[in-house]
Amino acid sequence: MSEARDLLGRPLEAVEREVLAAHEQLLRIAARSDLAPCVRANTLAALALTWQMANDLDLPVDTPPE
Amino acid sequence: MSVSPYWNPKNETLTRAELATLQTAKLQRAVAHAAARSPFHQRKLESAGVTAASIRSLDDLRRIPFTTREEWMACQAETPLFGDMLAHPRERAIRYHLTSGTSGKNPLRVLDSRRDWQWIAECWAYGFWAFGVRPTDTVFFAFSYGSFIGFWGAHYACEKMGALTLASGNMPTDMRVRQIIEMGVTTVCATPTYALRLAQSAAEQGLDLRGSAVNKVIVSGEPAGSIPETKKLIEDAWGAKVADTAGMTELGTICMFECSHQPGGMHIIEDHFIEEVLDPATDEPVGYGEKGERVVTSFGREMIPVLRYRTRDMVVKVPSTRCACGRGFDIYEGGILGRVDDMLLIRGTNVYPRAIEGIVRGHAEIDEFQVLVEKQNDIDEIILRVELKPGTEACWPRLAKQLDFDLREAHEMLRFGVQQADAGSLPRFELKARRVLDKRRKP
Prior knowledge:
A: 56% helix, B: GMP Synthetase, Chain A, domain 3
């Protein structure tokens, strides 16, 4: 597997890999169909935040689901 | 641990070459998003033969068609309420806003998602952090929180950074002033016009703003925030530093901010926007130091992709090196200099409202003013109506002469009428001021 890079083409730093992992973890939670309304709504809110963290760090993430 | 002076140290300190690489990558993604999801942009990109894969450098930006306010309004008229520019269904949105309507045109309707609101706040955070707002600050928003997007994003930015945030909503002006003092507010956010109105209210109530805890006034919504004379009036009245910011509802947030080094202009948030400056007559790019129209491409708003939006704002871009703050973001010298269409032609002479305001605000005795343009016996006449601060009426004969001289001098000896208006007779504004009344224009 090729090494992940940011939009500038640089290898990711440790903190950037952790941000991506947190975002991906939230994406997995959001994909579940058994979430209580409180968990679903807060997961989506958290995803908007992790998307913004990734965006600020120029990480190639897609738009969160809804 | 030392705290960074930059909200986003990674991007704010990129070199120009690195910034171009980032903008190119983000432009490819923005075009891909618009082409895949927005029927409005699909049509336009397809007809121009532009795909994400065909964007290889920033030079390819010029192949993307412009987006105009007129097209946007037309698509909303054809497909009410939101037109076909939206890239996601209405159900994804969490908020609805309208443009302010100060241009006299039909307001534009916009929808934003959760992700959009994080991004909107983020852009404001760049500006507030750059001017020194920190989690220890207490920030007061002198703003009515209505359907005009105004300072909504700034409010969320301050909450995001952990500052104590005071929303004044529909509070009357005198009460706002008292709360600013009582709560030990350190940062006040308002339009430039309303910052002056608050100061006037403090004086009427015998309250000392200069002795208050306020040390920063952050303004937005009017070009006056970058007019030195207006800025100085606000700084003198508040005993605080004033920083300008500028954005627009069409873009959802601010695109530029003044940092604490105050280089005489505003840094462009170039990791979230591409700002071109073009000659409005030829659409050709102009160089550093030349005046032109700003055309904006946005990277952050998912509900409404914005590609090459013609803002009609006139600006002069200068290199980032003009400022000592270390940011790589270029600067709009003097902020927003006016609108492509706000020039008044009076008996063959060009008159810009910003130039008039610069002269008027050089006189601290003036409380409010209005510019009236009308035909008298088929001749265009321009009249400056001036309201004086209470207790300064005796200065009028001298002031009227001085204004008459300064206005003529700045406008090829064009004759202005200069009139004193009764106290309290001119309109006051909380949001964007409308001080030019051109009676020659058909409604």
